[in-house]
Specification:
alpha/beta; DNA polymerase, domain 1; 2 domains; seven-stranded mixed sheet; 13 helices; binds S-adenosylmethionine
């Protein structure tokens, strides 16, 4: 349950490091796989600052290395965290978005549609907004937004109507309560899996405010990375990948016209990097992963 197979470990870390004695940030510590590899590749004078908004991940840390400084915090606060420890600039930032197997495999966290558990999905269990609130308290308009924007469903209203109708009778409490609202018995295994992955993804993004966190981190990264330093971002769905790609290429977050924007980063590879066949076979969860590495100009 505790094991998380780090995705594109070698590629993401090797391309990140440009100064073996530099200061690096792993913004998504998880089970520490990427952090451990970064430490292996750095020299003794280096510093690694690692963050995770999930306190369980901090408590489970197994890395004993005095170069590692671990914080329970959201990466949206990166600037303030660095300021507190008197660091202005860093040589590189690694971000491995989404959730860990540790979170997914624990039914009580409510992340998985394959097991029954309370609808929770909070990565940070100290916040007071969970999947229960999203499903039982959101307005029709908000639910529509969540399923169209974060789930990219073609007909989100169909989903919204089912939720609204059922919750008039009784609250929707567990993952299976939610899944049972949809008549999936006739659909194939793949259709069902695809639908439920998108459904759960949409709710999780809303609960954890994932889009705003990512956008803020991208903007902050252009202020904190030294020229020649790098960002290495691994994402697992197209909404995140589009934001990262657009930001690196255009230097902004959306297509509102602003003149004279010089992108702060340049991509260091032509095509997006994906796991090789071997990795996909050994770790099927890596299949959707996309890695983008860019260098500060
Ligand atoms: C895919 S896992 C990272 C796995 C890690 N690279 C490893 O090798 O074990 C993503 C982790 O990022 C954390 N996370 C997601 N969004 C975050 C945020 N906005 N701030 C801090 N941590 C976040 C999650 O709690 C989770 O532990």
């Amino acid at each position: 349950m505790f094991y998380h197979n780090p995705v594109m470990l070698q590629e993401s870390v090797k391309l990140l490091i440009t100064n073996k004695n530099g200061i690096y940030v792993d913004a998504t510590f998880g089970c520490g796989g990427h952090s451990l590899e970064i430490l292996k590749q750095l020299d003794t004078q280096s510093i690694l600052i690692a963050l995770d908004q999930d306190n369980e991940s901090i408590k489970n840390n197994f890395i004993k290395d005095k170069r590692l400084h671990l914080f329970h915090d959201n990466f949206i606060n990166i600037k303030q965290i660095l300021k507190k420890i008197n660091i202005n600039k860093i040589s590189g930032l690694l971000v491995d978005l989404g959730f860990s197997s540790f979170q997914l495999n624990n039914p009580s966290r409510g992340f998985s549609h394959q097991v029954n558990g309370i609808l929770d999905m909070r990565m940070n269990q100290t916040i007071h907004y969970s999947a229960l609130d999203v499903i039982n308290k959101s307005s029709e308009k908000k639910l529509f937004y969540i399923f169209s924007k974060y789930g990219e469903f073609n007909n989100p209203m169909k989903i919204v109507k089912k939720i609204l109708k059922f919750r008039l009778k009784q609250p929707i409490i567990t993952t299976y309560d939610l899944i049972n609202l949809f008549f999936l018995k006739k659909s194939s295994f793949h259709q069902r899996k695809r639908f439920l992955s998108k459904l759960f993804q949409a709710i999780r993004i809303e609960v954890n405010n994932e889009i705003q966190c990512l956008q803020t981190l991208l903007i902050e990264s252009s202020n904190i990375i030294l020229p020649g330093g790098r960002i290495s971002f691994i994402s697992y769905h197209s909404i995140e990948d589009r934001i990262i790609k657009y930001f690196i290429k255009q230097g902004k977050l959306n297509n509102i016209k602003i003149n004279n924007i010089i992108p702060p980063f340049k991509m260091i590879h032509n095509k997006v990097i994906t796991p090789n066949i071997e990795e996909m076979k050994c770790n099927p969860k890596s299949r959707s992963a996309k890695l983008r590495v860019a260098e500060k100009i």
